[in-house]
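Morning. Coffee machine broken again, so started the prediction first thing and wrote up yesterday's gels while waiting. Chain of 394 residues, entered below exactly as on the submission form.
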Amino acid sequence: MRYAAFMKLVFQFGSHPALSQAELVSRFPNLAHGRLLAERFFVVECSESPAWLMGQLGGVVKILEVVEGLSRKPDELVAHLADHVIRANTARNKVTFGVSIVNASEFKGLGIALKREIQAQTDRPVRSVISRDPILSSASVQLEKLLPPDGVDLTILKDSSDVVACQTVAVQPFDEWSFRDYGRPGRDAKRGMLPPKLAKIMINLAQGAMESSSSAVYDPFCGSGTVLTEAALMNFGRVFGSDILKQAVDDTKASLAWARTQFGLDATEFDVFKHDASARAQHLKPASIDFVASEPFLGRPLKKGEALSASEKNALVALYNKTLRALAPAMKQDCRLVFSLPFQITPRELLPLHEIIAETGFTIDPLLPEQKTLLYMRSDQRTGRQIVRLVRNA
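Came back before lunch.
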């Protein structure tokens, strides 16, 4: 899982860069010293294998490696990159590459210039992959075989006066994510769907640098089992879940059984039971849970133009407060809890966190140094998610 020496890697974050950054530095605190370029590219020295790192994270779409020793001048960069691309294409006779340009308009014609330069340096066939978007997607990189040794996916980054040239060395496996989302039997759109990537991000935010194989994770609102399925795939030793609805419990059990069969999860201990999250769970021993990751009940589904009433919001606040009180005895001291709470997108209105955590023994654990919580929203939804991390300290 480690390189022989430190390499300068670039983590390309997904649609919610701040949340992806919070996940990365929570799971790997040793990488917190990196710097952010162009809002969603995080540059840091690292010794872990990019392929292994990609498997640990939900919010990173590409991992790139900085190509050192290159001129930053556009005319000189072309010749240097052409030589790099030729040498990196070792699996096939054809030289295949793609180019993404970020905040660097002076490099706009790099793809065409690079193809000409490669053709001038070699008699091998040359194919360049062109995208309508300025950045090639991870799906395109995988489908077009642009990872070494089959090809090269280059990205030119510019932030202020700093120019960084790098090549993709690992991409998010979009086909695996799709299979885990749509392939499992317990999926239920009517009860709401927590995206598996977001579930994994939440688990990493709660887990931190903790070892997974000896840890116990609990989801008191397990729904169709998204969080618990991801936790099982992350090799947690014990996975516990509950829901007030019997159908949800059955769906979660079906999802976990499917995951056990599909991915061979014999080492993980499962226990899913029917339970009201606002009452103390008798199934859980005192101080037996290492952390909690969950999306609680978000309120009724909203139609266009609708919003939750004041009484409905108050009911949710009361539910979350009671749940935290009920969870506290089962959680270990200083362990963390991550909730995905609802918020109204337009006009933006968040639930009062101070009321939710009042007299529960939990305090807010900021996700980033200057951001206590982070928002997750999609353009086709009327309700967003406020990601909150709490720590039990009493």
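The chain has a mean pLDDT of 90. Going to sketch it on the whiteboard this afternoon.
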